[in-house]
Design brief:
Elements: E1 2-6, H1 10-20, E2 25-29, H2 36-41, E3 44-47, H3 49-56, E4 64-67, E5 85-87, H4 94-109, H5 112-120, E6 136-140, H6 144-153, E7 159-163, E8 175-177, H7 182-185, E9 191-194, H8 208-211, E10 219-222, H9 231-239, E11 245-248, E12 268-270, H10 280-295
Parallel strand pairs: 1-2, 1-3, 3-4, 4-5, 6-7, 6-9, 7-8, 9-10, 10-11, 11-12
Helix pairs in contact: 1-10, 4-6
Length: 310
């Protein structure tokens, strides 16, 4: 079977595919223009959505595309075909996301930034550290990644609250609600973590009205999509001390333009979309599992519903 690999780190993916020993042939590149002819002959593509979209715009279409990303926004554009199987990366980012979140949750409780400032001033820091135990953690988007995050943070004794698509009980969350409940839930959250995908319903939901309801000691963390946040409203909320700080991993435009105010907003830390990178080994493991499912007409992991945008 001949497959197309189109990714910025294509050599890492081909190395892992070779190790999988599946007797696959593959054509690989980090530029769509280099693989146009091969793409016409390959029914299966493994690739970065923004690169794959370039081929789709040339009226070349496979039977199945395995995305290397959890988000597939570039492939949801109205001018692209949607009559093929698209699977997004699932089950591969949970551990990475937990490690990222723990970095900033603990840094916040342990006042790491304040202690660095005190050290620069040669000032002994007598601040009393906090603890995650009994802190309320609101996960907005308790899907595949959100549930892994909750399960791995549960041993720290946090009070887990989730936002899901439909109201239901979901372990290990103490309470779950829908987006309609979000304004009420943010009022008591010590940490609000946005993990929502980019859909029409989730755009601009983190606005001034919502930020104004948060506790002044709360930390907002966006590791979902930049389109969920009204940038100007977050900047104003931080200036007005409506919340204690913000950790922003994803932005509306990436890389973030040099003139964007996020670079210089007090209380805001940018992490340049580094929370949970696509690593070749787990992505290829997922691809191989889905390849078996595809060949045997079985349900595929992470299959995208184009009508729901995820």
């Amino acid at each position: 079977m001949h497959i197309l690999v189109l990714a910025s780190d294509y050599n890492l993916y081909t190395d892992e595919l070779s190790k999988a020993n599946l007797s696959l042939q593959f054509t690989a590149s980090d530029e769509a223009s280099n693989v146009i002819d091969a793409a016409r002959e390959c029914p299966i593509w493994l690739g970065d959505p923004h690169l794959v979209a370039e081929l789709l715009r040339l009226n070349i279409k496979p039977k199945w595309i395995q995305s290397t990303w959890a988000g597939v926004s570039p492939l949801l554009a109205d001018d692209l075909p949607h009559d093929y199987i698209l699977t997004r990366a699932v089950g591969v980012f949970g551990q990475l996301m937990v490690e990222y979140l723990l970095t900033y949750l603990l840094a916040h409780e342990r006042q790491v930034m304040q202690r660095i400032d005190h050290q620069k001033e040669e000032k002994w820091c007598d601040l009393q550290p906090g603890t995650l135990k009994n802190r309320q953690l609101l996960i907005v988007g308790a899907g595949d990644i959100g549930c892994v995050v909750a399960q791995m943070l549960s041993p720290f004794g946090v009070d887990l609250i989730g936002i899901v698509s439909t109201t239901r009980s979901l372990s290990p969350f103490r309470l779950c609600g829908t987006l309609d409940d979000l304004p009420r839930f943010v009022e008591t959250a010590d940490y609000a973590v946005n993990l929502l995908p980019n859909t029409p319903k989730t755009q601009n939901i983190w606005n001034a009205t919502l930020f104004a309801r948060m506790k002044p000691t709360a930390l907002f963390i966006n590791v979902g999509r930049g389109s969920a946040v009204v940038d100007a409203d977050l900047i104003m909320a931080l200036k007005q001390k409506w919340l204690a700080g913000a950790i922003i991993d994803v932005c509306r435009e990436e890389p973030l333009p040099a003139q964007h105010p996020f670079w210089h907003t007090q209380g805001l830390i940018l992490t340049s979309h580094s929370a949970a990178p696509s690593l070749a080994c787990p992505i290829v493991e997922l691809f191989c599992d889905n390849l078996n499912r595809f060949c045997n007409n079985l349900s595929m992991r992470g299959r995208v519903d184009f009508h729901r945008s995820y």
